[in-house]
Amino acid sequence: MTDRRVVRTNQALRAAFRKLAQQYRFREITVAQLTAEANINRKTFYLHFDSIDDLADSFTAEIADQLLELLLREPANHAPLNHPGVWFDRLSAFFEEAPTFYTFILTSDDYSFLSRRVKYRVAAGLAADFQKDYQLSALDAKIGVNFLIDSTLTLFRLYITKQLGDLSSAEFRQRMVTLNLAGMRGFLALAGGK
Q1: Contact (CB, 8 A) for 137 and 175
Q2: Comparing C-alpha atoms, which of 7, 134, 150 is closest to residue 67?
Q3: Which runs of consecutive H residues, i.e. helices, occur in 22-168?
Q4: pLDDT band at residue 78, thresholds of 50, 70 and 90?
């Protein structure tokens, strides 16, 4: 059983980081600012996290775990070629329902390094399934999964930040599904997968 004080302190530190991240660039945030915002002392911060980067990484792990859960969910789990559009639909729902801070992390230029960490974690979590589902080598599964995750999340970032203009959701979906299908079919033909 977890001590309620530990839980409250973690929640306070995470809330402080969420607030400060939306006001400052990552490297501008200090432990002093975090502890003042969370109303705890510096020593307590270090009992919970090794660094501000460690605190930030707790968010990337949380976001990646939620994305993996969505992408691996049945039906149409991790075989996007067999169920075109299922990943788009699930990620679209994620962005509609996710806490604002998750969307901030995945779309902010200043915090793009955290977005990349999320992408790497999600890709790593899907690679074994891709290897099995498409009969690929471990290397080709890693390449294929990274292509899909990176391109999909990058395009969502562009869409959410209005960098794709007035593209409707349906038009965006069609383009993304078409690009991902064409890219993966070409790659699978090259890699000898099915």
Answers
A1: no
A2: 150
A3: 31-38, 42-48, 52-72, 86-97, 100-107, 112-133, 138-160
A4: low
Q: What is the pLDDT of residues 171-184, one digit of tens each?
A: 999 999 999 888 88
Tens of pLDDT along 5-48?
889 999 999 999 999 999 999 999 999 999 999 999 999 999 99
Q: How far apart are CA 185 and CA 105, in angstroms?
A: 31
- Are residues 146 and 123 in contact, defined by beta-carbon separation less than 8 angstroms? yes
Q: CB pairs under 8 A, 24+ apart, for 127-132?
A: 129/72, 129/77, 129/78, 130/78
Phi, psi of 192 (to 5 degrees): 80, 15
For residue 110, give both structure tokens: 């200043």
Q: Cβ contacts of residue 82 below 8 Å, gap of 6+? A: 76
Question: pTM for the complete prediction?
Answer: 0.87
What's the token pair of residue 156? 């969502």
Answer yes or no: are the C-beta atoms of 138 and 131 closer than 8 Å.
yes
Give the orientation angle of helix 52-72 with respect to helix 86-97, to 10 degrees: 130
Q: Measured between alpha carbons, how far is residue 156 from residues 41, 57, 107, 167 in Å? A: 39, 21, 8, 12
